[in-house]
Specification:
With 452 residues, the protein is α+β, with helices and mostly antiparallel strands. The protein contains 16 helices and 20 strands. A hairpin with a 5-residue loop joins strand 18 and strand 19.
Length: 452
């Protein structure tokens, strides 16, 4: 099979254009673009002499195709005498991300621990909200910078990939931001992905999947998303399906979420519609869904292109009390305790800060092997050994072992680490209890010498 036939089987909007000649390959989408907008180089304002295209550039465009307004990001790269272009449809995802950012209070347990930087900021003032990932990023780079602020002020919405210098190395960041008016102030809501080593990631990057998958995978909050006016059920996450069932979603897909007595009674539907009509948002607390155990908080968000519903199970009073008790014990424990998810420190107590000699922001978002020497005493790389120990704890439920850790000042200490699986507020974590056993090790070594 030759390259042209392979390209025909690629299920993605791709165009390959000869500079100064006829196109080499056009997917159906790009044929439609040429038909509607003419010359692709003029439409996307491509300057073939600009050397930046050798590395790859992206831009966001609003298109009117087949009677619909849609938003696309175009990734453009020059390869010798050809221009490679990939288009990514971000139409409905824009509103879903807006809903997630604007509902960061409702989703705080997820947004706060995400490795994607999420923030709300006054255009000419300080931050209203920023999560830990953005705090960590801002230690390396001033963000959002004047380039981004000027661009978002000029266009109202920015979807961009660009090169920055972090720790003396070229990195690419993926950023999204939009300007909104709130309570008489002009504010920016946005997020940034900042751990990409090169622009190559964008070719295989379905724009929001990285952001959404984190939220969906971790979420004990139901997320349901519809196209404009709830005409089409776009998708729902696993938690929503577990709570409501496939049968209910089959009804919602046909009749809509506001069909009486699927989820809500007629009176509640009227209240929700009235609230949405007033400001595009509505919150419903302690609601009992017919034939489903427990009570739920709902948050509704209507955007320009889509409609998002979040639902969260309300914990019974005794479970809330147990969670508060655990958090109190966690914070004031005499041992260093850290919570790990996906090989990343998500939380730690005061004793952990003392043990490692650093601030909380120095730990959260980092890996356990970040606080270890390159190799353990047995010669095994710390990164490899860490993953092995965490995997063992995940399978067996617990693991106790000795380890050499590294403090923030670079000094080493011997530790006994106990790993165990725990659940907090519906989330599964690996709990690490770390004890400094340096003195005990020294006493044992001295004892051996005296015996010998």
């Amino acid at each position: 099979m030759d390259a042209r036939n392979i390209l025909k089987k690629v299920n993605s909007p791709i165009g390959i254009f000869r500079i100064g000649g006829a196109p080499l390959f056009l997917s159906g989408f790009f044929k439609e673009i040429l038909k509607s907008y003419g010359n692709i180089f003029s439409f996307l304002e491509i300057d073939v002499e600009n050397s930046a295209y050798n590395r790859g550039l992206s831009l966001e465009k609003r298109l009117f195709l087949n009677g619909e307004t849609k938003f696309f990001v175009f990734y453009i790269q020059r390869i010798d005498k050809y221009i490679f272009i990939k288009a990514i449809d971000i139409t409905y995802n824009i509103d879903l991300i807006n809903a997630i950012i604007e509902r960061s209070d409702f989703l705080s347990g997820i947004v706060a621990t995400s490795t994607v930087g999420v923030y709300t900021k006054e255009l000419k003032g300080g931050f209203i909200y920023k999560n830990q990932a953005l705090e960590n990023f801002m230690e390396k780079l001033e963000y959002p910078d004047m380039y981004f602020l000027n661009k978002v002020l000029e266009t109202g919405i920015v979807v961009d990939v660009r090169e920055v210098i972090i720790d003396g190395k070229e990195k690419f960041i993926f950023e999204y931001g939009r300007v909104v008016e709130s309570k008489g102030k002009t504010i920016i809501r946005g997020f940034v992905i900042f751990d990409t080593a090169s622009s190559d990631f964008f070719r295989d990057f379905t724009f929001y999947n990285r952001v959404l998958s984190e939220i969906f995978d971790l979420s004990q909050i139901g997320i349901i998303f519809f196209s404009k006016d709830c005409l089409k059920l776009e998708f729902y996450n696993k938690f929503a399906e577990d709570v409501l069932s496939k049968e209910i979603f089959e009804k919602i897909a046909i009749l809509g979420i506001f069909e009486p007595n699927i989820l809500f009674d007629e009176n509640t539907i009227s209240l929700i519609r009235e609230g949405l009509g007033f400001n595009g948002e509505y919150e419903l607390f302690n609601y009992k869904i017919p034939n489903i155990e427990g009570e739920f908080d709902f948050s509704f968000f209507e955007g320009n292109l889509g409609f998002t519903v979040f639902l969260r199970r309300v914990l019974p009073a005794e479970e809330k009390s147990a969670c508060r008790q655990f958090k109190s014990m966690f914070e004031y424990a005499s041992d260093a305790i850290l919570l790990i998810k996906d090989n990343i420190f998500m939380e730690c107590n005061k004793k952990a800060l003392e043990l490692f000699g650093c601030r909380k922001e120095d730990i959260i978002g980092k890996t356990p092997f970040h606080f270890s020497p390159e190799f353990q005493p047995d010669g095994l790389p710390s990164e490899e050994a860490t993953i092995k120990m965490l995997d063992t704890a995940t399978v067996s439920g617990n693991k106790v072992f000795e380890w050499v850790h590294k403090r923030c000042d670079g000094s080493l200490f011997d530790a006994e680490v106990t790993l165990s699986k725990i659940q907090i507020d519906g989330y599964t974590y690996t709990q690490a209890i770390v004890r400094d056993i340096s003195a005990r090790k020294r006493d044992n070594d001295l004892g051996k010498i005296l015996v010998d």
